[in-house]
């Protein structure tokens, strides 16, 4: 099971906080993945098609609990993709038009609602329930072992902006991105994704995300130290090569026999240990010398050649 499926399944099992939370969840679910057909004056047909069991389970359960309307449920299996397709249909029937107004799909005059109606998200807990329903219906949460990314695919720019604003009311920075005929309300930072999932009740998924963040932090720290050590070794190797070239130039000019005792000892020591850093070279010296003392001798060699 993908991480997205795990998140959706966990959210579909969350209990409502107040008596109106289930209505908010159902309203978001229908709005995100439902299709409304107008079959005549005042006659409608609502269809929800999904490949996600959590969506089908939530849609059926809340429809029977809140709307008490007749539903048609069909399960089809895709031969090409080898997955199940769930089709939930609310055919034209008495009370469907009132249910669509209640869900915020239609206004009282029968027009389509572009944004999110206030009566559905009047309470703070209902706002969270609406976001939860949108995540169940069209949410995608990337596996936290890779990149951190959460998005909800929706139809309509006004609805996408309204959903992003609703998410912003809980302190999470959500943005909208147009993708051909759809819109994606997305969250990128791990902190905001954690805050959003925690707010809507996906605590088990938050634990998985936190474990992944901790593992990434450890890996990044190890990589940083390894890279720093490699860089130090590269610098040390370059410095040692430079010092050997100085000694070779001293030899070429016939100045080796005129060197002071300290410089001669340094030259002999560097030739004996061509791969050591100055710090390690000082430790094998007899008596031991500090890194700064050896570096001072390198500078004296450079000045001598100048």
From TrEMBL:
InterPro entries: Homing_endonucl, Sporu_reg_WhiA_N_dom, Sporulation_regulator_WhiA, Sporulation_regulator_WhiA_C, WhiA_LAGLIDADG_dom. Residues 222-304 form the Sporulation regulator WhiA C-terminal domain. Residues 129-219 form the WhiA LAGLIDADG-like domain. GO terms for biological process: cell division; regulation of sporulation. Keywords: Cell cycle, Cell division, DNA-binding. It holds the Pfam family HTH_WhiA. Residues 21-101 form the Sporulation transcription regulator WhiA N-terminal domain. Gene3D superfamilies: Homing endonucleases. One of its GO terms (molecular function) is DNA binding. Involved in cell division and chromosome segregation. Belongs to the WhiA family. This is Probable cell division protein WhiA. It comes from Enorma massiliensis. The gene is whiA.
């Amino acid at each position: 099971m993908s991480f997205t499926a795990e998140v959706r399944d966990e959210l579909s099992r969350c209990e409502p906080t107040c008596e109106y939370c289930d209505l908010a969840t159902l309203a978001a679910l229908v709005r995100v993945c439902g299709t409304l057909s107008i079959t005549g004056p005042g006659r409608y047909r609502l269809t929800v098609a999904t490949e996600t069991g959590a969506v089908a389970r939530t849609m059926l359960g809340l429809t029977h609990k809140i709307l008490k309307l007749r539903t048609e449920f069909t399960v089809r299996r895709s031969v090409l993709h080898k997955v199940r397709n769930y089709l939930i249909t609310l055919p034209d029937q008495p009370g469907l038009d009132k249910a669509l107004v209640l869900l915020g799909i239609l206004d009282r005059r029968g027009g389509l609602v572009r944004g999110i109606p206030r009566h559905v998200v009047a309470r703070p807990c209902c706002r969270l329930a609406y976001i939860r329903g949108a995540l169940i219906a069209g949410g995608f949460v990337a596996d936290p072992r890779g990149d951190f990314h959460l998005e909800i695919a929706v139809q309509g720019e006004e609805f996408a902006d309204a959903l992003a604003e609703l998410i912003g009311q809980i302190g999470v920075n959500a943005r909208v991105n147009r993708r051909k005929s759809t819109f994606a309300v997305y969250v990128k930072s791990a902190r905001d994704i954690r805050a959003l999932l925690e707010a809507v009740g996906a605590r088990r998924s938050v634990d998985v995300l936190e474990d992944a963040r901790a593992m990434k932090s450890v890996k990044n720290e190890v990589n940083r130290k390894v890279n720093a050590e490699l860089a130090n070794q590269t610098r040390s190797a370059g410095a040692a090569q430079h010092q050997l070239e100085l000694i070779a130039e001293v030899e070429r000019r016939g100045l080796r026999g005129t060197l002071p005792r300290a410089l001669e000892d340094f030259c002999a020591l560097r030739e004996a240990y061509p791969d050591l850093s100055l710090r390690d070279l000082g430790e094998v010296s007899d008596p031991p010398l500090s890194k700064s003392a050896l570096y001072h001798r390198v500078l004296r060699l450079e000045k001598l050649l100048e």
